[in-house]
Specification:
heterodimer; A: alpha/beta; 16 helices; B: alpha+beta; two-stranded antiparallel sheet
Chain lengths: 515, 80
């Protein structure tokens, strides 16, 4: 657009600038750029990388402000020791070229390598941490190596010192069947081939035409970090970690550590050391076996001689049969000597005893005893019957006394008795009441006789003040506001208010004694 | 002790079994009849170990691959 505008402008302006076609100007630019930048070194960070099946590698180089596209043709890419990857600080050597069809320019890379060791190691460390975080390097994943593998698979270059070192050392220690899987051990083909070889060995069937190794060795001789770079590639690390067959890595020299070393079950510092880890020393084992055989024989002989010794010890301790019988035999002799004498003595003693016991045994004694006992028996028999009868009569009487008798309940009699009692109660009650009435009447008459009213009847009077207090003297009467006089036939109130009672003349002392 | 017949044992298994038998016999706490049986087993195990050790032979071959990188066969390798 700019070009067209400018062209228009130039046309309008009618200046003397030459007029180009698009192709002409594009070609001119191409010539200038390729002429000016036919060989450049560019330092930058690798941006996006793509690797299509064609084998060419497309990538961006960038710094903080600009980006330039790059391409690495297939042949060049395969030659590189360190395949570029995103984030890597690199130095790319090549030439600039334009791509007129799209108004673009790019660098055609002839060589690319990390910009110094620091940049490469930083990339390596970053990858190591990422893979470790996935657990690919965990100790728990590591398997024990077989003690004596039948077939050993070796992933390495078929030519070179490495395989020779391994085979030599194996031959020295324990010749085995060895299968070599040839791979490129550096360059771009290295990582994919090594990974494919590890996976390929694992893919072999245990009883297939090709014997399946029971141990793998991935080996390479020493080299620069860039040379060994293929063994740091993720595909290789993953293949080693996933290998079902125990794997020894032996890449580079002792001081070189690649990421496959972390994923391997064992790491050998050198290819030779890998062979040493792989097999035991046959001669040692032969010696060991012979030694075990000798120990076996010795142990058995020891067992036998030990038992023979014990047998002879034990049989020595066993007494002779004669000595075992001596004492009993002697005892037998002694006892048989004593036997006849003892028999004689025994008979004699018993005879004596019999004659002693039989001496006191006479008929008359027995008979007397018999008669007296018979008499006692008869006497007892005579006393028996009467005693029995007496006892019986006594028991019968007692029984009779105990017999139950019916008891007539005299209900009618009880009713009559109850009635009589009721009548008596009534009589007694009325008599008591009459007596009480008579006593009350007598008492009433007595109280009448003793009352001051009789005195009043004889003409005396009782004088009280207004509050009903009896007055017995003139001084009291004259001080009272009101007087009440009681006569025989009623009371007369004098003074103050309406009189209710009449004062008496002087009945005080008489009355006082009365109350 | 495993039930695998001695003749089918791997070298390592036979080796461990032999070690056990020798230890047991050397401890001497087995009955006489048993110690004889143990000895016979030990002798068989030793033979097995020796046979495995004698079988050691080197045979080196390289994998041959087809175009896709899959193992197709092996060819002997000489002179390494």
């Amino acid at each position: 657009m700019d070009l067209i505008d400018e062209t228009d402008g130039a046309g309008d302006g009618g200046g003397n600038a030459p007029e180009f076609t698009v192709s002409e100007i594009s070609g001119a630019v191409k010539r200038v750029i390729e002429g000016e930048f036919g060989h450049v070194r560019i330092r930058g960070e690798v941006g996006r990388v793509s690797r299509p099946r064609s084998g060419h590698v497309y990538l961006d180089l960038k710094d903080d402000r600009a980006v330039i596209s790059g391409v690495m043709w297939k042949g060049v890419a395969a030659r590189q020791t360190t395949p570029p990857e995103e984030g890597m600080e690199v130095v790319a050597i090549g030439r600039l070229t334009t791509f007129p069809g799209q108004s673009k320019y790019q660098i055609v890379i002839e060589e690319i390598r990390p910009a110094g060791l620091g940049a490469l190691m930083a990339t390596l460390e970053k990858r190591r941490l990422a893979l470790a975080a996935e657990g690919l390097f965990d100790e728990a994943r590591k398997r024990a190596l077989p003690f004596l593998p039948e077939v050993i698979g070796v992933v390495t270059s078929p030519s070179g010192a490495v395989i020779r070192d391994i085979l030599h050392r194996l031959r020295d220690r324990f010749p085995r069947r060895v299968l070599i899987w040839p791979v490129a051990v550096q360059g771009a083909r290295c990582a994919p081939e090594v990974a494919a070889a590890i996976a390929g060995f694992n893919a072999l069937k245990p009883d297939g035409a090709i014997p399946r190794p029971d141990l793998l060795i991935v080996a390479r001789g020493g080299g620069s970090v860039e040379d060994l770079w293929g063994f740091n590639e993720e595909v290789v690390v993953r293949a080693a970690a996933q290998s079902a067959i125990p794997l020894i890595s032996a890449v580079g020299h002792e001081t070189d550590t690649t990421l496959i070393d972390h994923a391997a079950d064992r790491r050998a510092p050198t290819p030779t050391a890998a062979a040493e880890l792989a097999v035991p020393v046959r001669l040692d084992l032969l010696a060991w076996t012979a030694g075990q055989g000798a120990r076996l024989g010795r142990a058995l002989r020891g067992q036998l001689s030990q038992r023979a010794q014990r047998l002879s010890d034990v049989s020595r301790a066993l007494p002779r049969s004669e000595s075992l019988l001596d004492t009993p035999r002697q005892r037998l002799d002694m006892l048989s000597d004593r036997l006849s004498a003892a028999l004689r003595n025994g008979v004699q003693q018993r005879r004596l005893h019999l004659s002693e016991a039989g001496g006191s045994l006479r008929g008359a004694v027995l008979r007397r005893r018999l008669e007296s006992e018979a008499a006692r028996l008869a006497a007892l028999a005579r006393r028996r019957d009467p005693a029995l009868l007496r006892g019986l009569a006594g028991r019968r009487a007692a029984l009779e006394a105990l017999r139950l008798r019916p008891r007539a309940l005299d209900l009618a009699g009880r009713a009559r008795l109850l009635e009589t009692l009721a009548r008596r109660l009534e009589r007694a009650e009325s008599a008591r009441r009459a007596a009480a009435a008579a006593r009350l009447g007598a008492a009433a008459r007595l109280i009448d006789t003793l009352s001051y009213h009789q005195t009043l009847a004889r003409g005396y009077a009782v004088v009280r003040d207004g509050t009903g207090q009896v007055l017995t003297g003139k001084s009291e009467a004259s001080g009272a506001a009101e007087l009440e006089i009681e006569f025989r036939d009623g009371r007369l109130r004098l003074g103050g208010r309406r009189a209710r009672r009449a004062p008496a003349a002087d009945p005080g002392p008489a009355q006082g004694s009365l109350f | 002790m495993t039930d695998t017949p001695v003749s089918e044992m791997s070298f390592e298994t036979a080796m461990k079994a032999l070690e056990q038998v020798v230890d047991q016999l050397e401890r001497g706490d087995v009955a006489l009849e048993e110690s004889i049986a143990l000895y016979e087993r030990g002798a068989a195990l030793k033979q097995r170990c020796e046979a495995e050790l004698k079988r050691a032979e080197e045979k080196v071959a390289a994998i041959t691959m087809d175009a896709d990188g899959v193992a197709r066969g092996i060819k002997p390798v000489e002179g390494l």
